Inverse folding.
């Protein structure tokens, strides 16, 4: 039996705030989304001292591939002596950071700076 698993890639909105690049992600951040998002985030973290804010407040679901994407972005930013901030209010996401040992690894805020 063949099923069509086509679905939309999560939407991404990009803006600037106080010199930082703000990327608002919407929808599910899973393996399929990561494939579409990795190049975009790599481009934003390719230059010296990137200041990146990822707004995750409209993300409905994030899996281990999504967490891997966040870790990749963090590692690229730190390697270039930049700054990465996450904007997140979801109790489930914050609980996931704690459960995976990533709490304290990311700079997490409840609202945009």
């Amino acid at each position: 039996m063949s099923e069509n698993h086509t679905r939309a890639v999560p939407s991404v909105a990009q803006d600037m705030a106080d010199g930082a690049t703000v990327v608002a992600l919407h929808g599910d951040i899973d393996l399929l989304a990561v494939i579409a998002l990795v190049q975009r985030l790599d481009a934003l973290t390719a230059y010296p001292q990137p200041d990146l804010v990822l707004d995750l407040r409209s993300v409905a679901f994030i899996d281990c591939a999504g967490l891997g994407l966040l870790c990749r972005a963090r590692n690229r930013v730190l390697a270039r002596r930049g700054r990465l901030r996450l904007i997140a209010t979801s109790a489930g996401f914050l609980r996931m950071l704690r459960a995976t040992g990533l709490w304290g690894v990311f700079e997490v805020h409840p609202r945009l700076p």
